[in-house]
Amino acid sequence: MDRETIPEIASTFKILLVGDSNVGKSSILLRFTDDHFLPPEDASATIGKDLQREKKSRGRLSRGVMMKPVYSTVHLLLCGVSRHVGVDFKVKMYDLDGKRYKLTIWDTAGQERFRTLTSSYYRGAQGVILVYDVCNRESFEHLNNWIDELNTYCSSDDVVKMVIGNKIDKEQERQVSRKEGAECARKHQTLFLECSAKTRIGVQQAVEELVNKIVDTPSLWRKAAQTKGTVSIDDSVTSGIPGGCAC
Amino acid sequence: MSENSLDNEEFDAIVFGTGLVESIVASHLAAADKKVLHVDRNPFYGGSSACFSLSAFIEWTIEHRDQRQTPLVEIYMGDMSAQPPPTFTLGHANEQLLASASTSAKHPGTAGTINADNIFDRLLSNCSQAPQLDMRSSLVSQLVALLKDDRSYSIELAPKVAHCRGELVDLIIDKGIAEYLQFKGVEHNYLIRNGVAERVPGSKEDVFASDSLSLIEKRKLMKLMTSITDDESHALLLDGCPEEMTFARFLESKFRLNAKLLDSVLYAVARAESKDELTARSGCERVRKYAKSIGRFGRMAYLCAMYGGGSEIAQSFCRLCAVAGGTYILSEEVRSIEKSWRDGADNGYCVQLAHGKVFAKHIILDPCYSPDSEPTTTAISRAMCILDYPVFGDDTTAILSYVDETEGAVVAMLYTTRATLAAPSGQSIVYAWKTGHLADTRSLLLRALTAARGTLARPLFTALFEVRDLRSSASGLSGLYHTAPPDATVDFDDTVDQARQLLSALL
């Protein structure tokens, strides 16, 4: 990415995906950022080890996509056990009203399997997408637990929440009606949408709605201002007050 | 295969405890393509460097601390400078109480609303000597006031900061997890001598600008900094120095520092634990490292992680491990860890967890997880004090060294505020720690806290406890590695070293 072609970034938003295993969080992320979808039979029994961290030049964090799935079918067969697609987070630029926002969208890295997301995962998030599978009632019922955890760890009470029912492409297997989903969202005062990461219906719209709401919530901006003066230890950033000896 | 069962799964390594050493090891193993299971028996990450809201910290003192490691926690509500008996002394938990408590065990902090009365009752029923009846209502109202801002506190069990040129910072950059963390500079370094806190100049500019130093002192400090940081003159200085010469003696003989400057360099810069701890060579190394650290990210030598150091950093490594395929379970009951044999041959380890029986070639564990672990004589005593006023500034972090005239001892200290989201605005947290048992260090630590707060601030809540090293008789078994709890140094470098040593044996 050339610096010249990018308009100035008005703000960076941290958006989290949470929800039970296998509801399609990573698929939604991949669909939104890369417009890419892993075939379901592979995605459910996905990789982990096969993924390699994108090579970074020492001492620099590469901007943009952090992880690249490099997967081999052979290894999948050997793996057998469900392993998570090791997506860390992805970065996507988003333009709204002539302003450019940098979205960092974070995936759970499989730590949701035993409900062991780190409290630091939630730090500083402006938006949270709670995902359930419309074909899996349990994943819908567990939303309450996720919302509890969210309220415990999110640093701001104003963090924008959105409930998403995924996999509406499998209409015949549906266990949670659209109405129930909407009701749950109303109860917890969150945004609501149904989508399919497979057919891409609703995915783009979901993230757009969430970002619009964040932009409209000034208290989230104030919160961001509070963390001013943080030191970026990424070596490529050498701003800050030069100290040491100048004499 | 059920999503939530691990039955009969085989791993390359199972790591017990999510402290920083364990987490660094786990992340490296996963990155090296090993299949890793990382287990913690607590409902939180961080092990012995965990970080808590105030209510969760109190819950830790009652429920989660390892009683072999920390047999006692003393809590003082209000002023403790006259060294009164603690308001609450939490000793060995009453078995019955524990049983009734564990049925209602909650994730610390998940309770939607924090109920000060409940927390007070928990303290009351778990302490060995209950406070007087007429005191109780005032204590409850003090707790209510504190818990109003419960989540604004980040209370660390083992506070540490990262050296700007230390191994941890390099590791974080190297692993690309800087994006997970936020740091603030530790802006100040204070030396408390004769009851007065004075800023220690960190750079030559600071020395120039200082108004607490005389012209002669400035010149001496300048000479010292130049000659120790310059490679050539540094080598020359040490040339001919006897190997056993202490750093204190070296400073006196080569630079003729007065007592104040000597203490500054020895304790605040080189961070010696006692006057004779460092040799000339190691002391010079520390001064050089300190000087080199300044300027890397600004004018400070150390960085402090937002929301509480060791725990946040450990969680970053855990996430790194998870991204590379590591499996995580918290709140997990570890029933047994046993050597496994198949056809008379060593088959690694068999571990019984609440989620099923699992196998591993290697076991890395915090000794808390061995039922046969016993405390050694080594311990670190730690104190944490919430002040009602930010004595060293409302939006800053500082490291402090307290020189105690009575005992001639030195105490390492850390001061945190809302700058790192560690305390509510208008308050601050001061930590003090010292190698040794609490019985021997209690009054020293209390004097250090009292000297640090000066006359402006009142202590609201103070906790003292010791953390003993545990040793297990199982150490030495092949494929089984024990970790050690955070040491008494102010930074994480020894922690990273420990992880590296374990990894060189494992990989």
Count the DSSP helices of chain B.
Answer: 15
Low-confidence stretches of chain A: 44-85, 236-247
Helix vs. strand class of chain A: alpha/beta
Structure classification of chain B? alpha+beta
What's the SSE pattern of chain A? EHHEEHEEHEHHEHEHH
CATH superfamily name of the largest domain in chain B? FAD/NAD(P)-binding domain
Organism (chain A): Coemansia thaxteri
GO molecular function (chain A): GTP binding; GTPase activity
InterPro entries (chain A): P-loop_NTPase, Rab, Small_GTP-bd, Small_GTPase
Pfam families (chain A): Ras (PF00071)
Descriptive overview:
The complex is a heterodimer of chains A (247) and B (507). Chain A is an alpha/beta fold and 247 residues long. In chain A, 30% of the residues lie in helices and 19% in strands. Chain A has one domain: 3-Layer(aba) Sandwich (Rossmann fold), CATH 3.40.50.300. In chain A, the strands form 2 sheets. Chain A has a 6-stranded mixed sheet, sandwiched between helices. The longest helix of chain A has 13 residues. The radius of gyration of chain A is 19 Å and the shape is globular. Helices cover 35% and strands 25% of the residues of chain B. Chain B is built from 15 helices and 21 strands. In chain B, strand 9 and strand 10 form a beta hairpin. Chain B: Belongs to the Rab GDI family.
Q: How are the elements arranged and paired?
A:
The complex is a heterodimer of chains A (247) and B (507).
Chain A: E1 9-18, H1 25-34, H2 40-44, E2 52-53, E3 67-68, H3 73-79, E4 89-96, E5 99-106, H4 119-122, E6 127-133, H5 137-141, H6 143-153, E7 160-166, H7 178-187, E8 191-194, H8 203-215, H9 218-226
Parallel strand pairs in A: 1-5, 1-6, 6-7, 7-8
Antiparallel strand pairs in A: 2-3, 4-5
Chain B: E1 10-16, H1 20-31, E2 36-39, E3 51-52, H2 54-64, E4 73-77, E5 88-90, H3 95-103, H4 116-126, H5 133-147, E6 155-156, E7 162-163, H6 167-175, E8 183-185, E9 188-193, E10 196-199, H7 204-209, H8 215-229, H9 231-238, H10 247-255, H11 259-269, H12 280-293, E11 302-305, H13 309-323, E12 327-329, E13 334-342, E14 345-353, E15 356-365, E16 374-387, E17 398-404, E18 409-416, E19 428-435, H14 438-453, E20 459-471, E21 480-482, H15 493-506
Parallel strand pairs in B: 1-2, 1-15, 2-12, 9-17, 15-21
Antiparallel strand pairs in B: 3-6, 4-5, 4-20, 7-11, 8-11, 9-10, 13-14, 14-15, 16-19, 16-20, 17-18, 18-19
Helix pairs in contact in B: 1-13, 1-15, 2-4, 4-5, 8-9, 10-12
GO biological process, one term (chain B): small GTPase-mediated signal transduction
Family (chain B): Belongs to the Rab GDI family.
GO molecular function, one term (chain B): GDP-dissociation inhibitor activity
